Protein: Glycosyltransferase family 39 protein
Amino acid sequence: MTARYSPWWWLYLLVLLAGMRLAVAGILPLSPDEAYYRLWAFAPAAGYLDHPPMVAAWIWLGMKLGGDDALGVRLVGVLAGAGVSAFVFRAVRDLLPDAGRAGGIRACVMLQATLALAIQSVVITPDMPVMFFLSVLLWAMGRVVAGAGARWWLVAGLAAGLACDSKYTAVLPVAGIALWLVMQAVNRRAWLLRQVPGLMGATVLSALCVAPVIWWNARHGWASFARQGGRTADWHPGRALQFLTELVMGQLGLMTPGIAAFFIWGQVVLLRRARRDAGAALLSCMTLLPACVFVQHAIGDRVQANWPVVIYPMLAVGAATVAWRWGRWAAAGGIVIGALVYIQALFGLLPLSAHTDVALRQMAGWRDLAVRIEDHAGQGDFIAACDYGTAAELARVLPGRVVVGMEPRWALFNLPHDVSGAGIMVCNPRRGFDRDVFTSVQPVGTLVRGRRGRVAERVDLYRVTLRADLSPAQRDSIVRLSTP
Structure:
């Protein structure tokens, strides 16, 4: 073993990255979506309108361990981001044994160096839990392929269920496993028959994990399934070229170009080996089936750049098959890009506009905005917002004030609905709000949120008074997010 592949050297690198990400996670303000997921942790449920409940469970655990602040909210995500390396390394050992320890190191470093993991390790969203549990699933499936015993099917079933409890797109790599099993039925029927008891146990265990999410949806009019499935309703094939270009450019950005080249190269190698190598075939199925779904979706609608991160663990394992001659430069480039993104997010050194500076647009100036909103509010007034992100941010930075959410989505939360009286409504001029729930709506003025003179957002303020005769549907959509 040559010195350049020393596991200790790369372990030090991974520890350094984890330490840097912990520091950034503790300093960087929460984004509106993170503040929104934080509220999920205060209203535990088996499901939510936007996603399954795993991200809420992680935030709840992180706040118990680290406190109700940015680091606490993100703590479990940062640790999981570092932890995926262990499962990816082990997956390479079993799925691609000829890649050796050096291949496992390549896979870990490539995954950690992607901009996607750099971001998801410090900003808690459902993408980090789903990547973590899919990495566990890869490890368990590697053990199955290596013939370690039927009990590993149970681990795989548990991991698959928890991944689906994290984000619905996890079903795509799981479907890739089903496709792989169909392929095995052609060439390895005797082996597949021996796997049936373990496979059945895995299916039952996975179904038990997902059952609470299905139960919650059944009780709430299938709201979450309808919301996510409804994305397929809009179909604009005339914009296919635009959507496909956005998909490709988004992945080049989140992988970084150098690492993207190695990921693609790795898939080519796997495809060449798939006919004779069960591990390569499994990785190809778990990667290419979701990729085909995303491409098909992009023919008629936009694919958000973060959706394909569900295949990144498989792409990283596939990269273990590629020679490392230029890989170190690709990984180093990815790490540098991630560090530059952190620096810009923390300090805003480049004078970018809110359109191009995501941290400015989403994270800057919330506390200053809250102080100026309070200047317009009376002692007993509530503060409301017309969108969930603004409401969640104000609830976080104004713990001593009654902050109110006013959207139909809030009716699905187990939060107090006893809101009355007068208050201040905060609303972006591009949005609207239901004025029928108020007896009076009086414009107060416009405030600017931003950082160092750069504008992130303008919001209009209104003095409002809630009606006393609200309908049940209207009252259910108005909830208290924080109280004195």
Observations:
- The chain has a mean pLDDT of 93.
